[in-house]
Amino acid sequence: TARDAGGDTRAPMCGVPYHSAQGYIARLLKHGEKVALCEQMEDPKLVKGLVKRDVVRVLTPGTVVEGDLLEERVNNWLVAVARAGNEWGVACVDLSTGEFKGTGGEGPAGDMRDELARLRPAELVGSAEALAESGAAGCPATTVEPVTPAEARTALLRHFGTASLAAYGLEERLAQRVAAAVLLGYAARMRPAGLSHLTQFVSYEPRTAVRLDPYTLDALEVVEPQRRGGPTLLTVLDASCTGMGGRTLRQWLVRPPALAGEILSRLDAVEWLVDRTADREAFRGLLGRCADLERIGGRLGSAAASPRDLAALRVTLGLVGECRIALAGAGAPGWLAELGEALNPLPELGRYLARALVDEPPLVITEGGMIRDGFHPEVDELRGLAKNGKGLLLELQERERKRTGIETLKVTYNSVFGYTLELTRGKAHLAPADWTRRQTLSGVERYVTEELKVLERKILGAEERLSRLEQELFLELRAHAATEVGSILATARALGRLDALGALAETAAKRGWIRPVMDAGGAIEIVEGRHPVLEREVSAFVANDVRLLPWQEQIMLVTGPNMAGKSTFLRQTALLTLMAHAGSFVPAKSARIAAVDGIFCRIGTSDRLAEGQSTFMVEMTEVSHMLRHATERSLLIFDEVGRGTSTYDGLSIAWAVVEHLARTLGAKTLFATHFYELTALAEELPAVLNLNDLVREWRNELVFLYKIVPGRADRSYGVQVARLAGLPATVVTRARELLAGFEKGSAAVAAAGAAGAAVDRQLTLFGPLPDPVRARLEEADVERLTPLQAMNLVHELKEMLDGGRGPDAGYSDA
Ligand code: ADP
Ligand code: MG
Question: Cβ neighbours of residue 369 under 8 Å, at least 6 residues apart?
């Protein structure tokens, strides 16, 4: 529903049962809505007329910290974008983990968009101008007033309580500074008590990571599947035991380091863990019992930690100590040792929590029963009184029964009349004179005595006081824990990294993967490589080799019929390269992988699964973005690019792109194409080599071997594929005849060395056919026809021949 909110505006509202509000709130946030929670600010019992109400909390997708509103293994990024002159800046914060960082650069917004694609923001803020530039695609965005760099500086100095922003790298990076200030301003408005854990801002250079743009992340299905619920690289690798590990691994995959040093320290750590099964399993066993320390830290910083959070904190701090000992005891070297030493079990806080908190506290702080017996004398006393009170009530009941001789007399309690002595109607005349009648119901009468009233005050007073005292003690405990939030979060991050390394080692060990050799030679040389996702799904996956060297063996043109495994081979090479950079072992017999500065994947629009935006224009935009950013240290993947337009256009563009790659760019490239004509390039350009996907014809059937070997495919096998798809035998035979004629034409194109050369079309083949049939056949793109479309085409052609009196039944799916 909705109601007037002044002027012409109507505020949308809805009513839900308060006890299930959380579920509804979660759904609204998922839809990108904001939710305002209103409460009565006064006790309705004490106020005449309207009770004062106010907004107590605003929940937005990017500012929630409650566990049940968040995805465990995904960071919840609130992101701000900004521009200052030629500089762009992005700042992001995950309030649920306290991670606060940013990046920026010079020039156009393309790089900003790449950064946003890696982050996948839950919510975006910025000035109207900055939001427009960001593309703001796919997430809720809020426009805020523009902030100047000077204003931003003042706000950030106030937040960090420092005299300079140099330590955060924000003195000179103006756009990042503005973004960080915009972010803090918005977060502070949504969560006034919630920013004490944002004590650090880390400015990182985009260059320190392998460049991965949105198309590449999509095409390689790194963290998002193209088919809902399908596997991704992340789901295959993620054997982590905690949300911290899962989030860390996700960050590693979308931002793999480009620096050899960082990669090597990860690979060393993974190798050590792979080699020590028992130590690894023991360590992962400990991790598996840890709570999400980072999110608990986030809630401590936002003053939103529950009693259960603190109980989990206590248990996990104990486990942190054990993890530390386990790593040191096993003699873990290098980065593992450093991470182990970064684990701080905070023994003093642990003891405080253990003394103060019961083992299994309630979920919410108003429920009581949080504080352990023996921790606070007044709590014990009040508990005694409350418990004792029940005994005293029973005693009083017994005495009054004796005095009146009424055995059915009992003491009852209800919230309006409090404690009363209850008699059935029939016994009412036996009530002594010193009883006062309180309430008459259909079957019973209720009375009080002076003694009962005194007792009631004592008992209820004790319960109320106890509840208040417990809350006070809890808040004290929580505030104390919050003073350690910096150590807790640092420990949580070390745990996350250890867990991510353990996960990579676990997957590598389970799947028999090997450590890639990372070197500066510039080559990528994989022997018997396999596709990390498909090798699990296909029963007999065929391993393949690849060797790429910038400028020399630089461009591999891969040809072969549909379904022969070209796309799989290309993606597998890109995925293995990405995995090695992230610090993972790879599925291969051996792999030498040079550090790359970027991986670019372009999939032709007609091969694209996600429809809707698939136009030739989009494809060309993507290709030009890649050609502008790739260097000789990049790895490029082109899969059937140039299909979205007419054959000769597409071929010409593909041809020119390959020439550019070979003559000016020097980037390592895999290029799968259905343009057989392109294979002629290998004769012209020594850096271009032909590979093809082996198929065998056996008794007129096609057998896919999935083996990539040097050389060009001699033909497209489209007719055989059509036959496999069930095209009628007469059609297949006729198609063979036609193909025999066309093949001379294709050879002529290849020999001419350029697209568009005149083609000897063997006109005699078409001689007897009437013109419209020929025209229809010529315009049909056989490569792109589905089997059903092909059958319908044949049907249509036949009808043309029969002058419209063709067979009355068309072909259908059935
Ligand atoms: P193309 O791009 O040549 O049309 P794909 O790479 O899409 O072919 O592969 C088609 C199918 O062939 C895959 O879905 C997979 O089932 C199978 N396949 C591909 N490569 C291999 C391989 N190396 N070993 C086994 N099966 C494979
Ligand atoms: Mg393909």
Answer: 358, 361, 362, 470
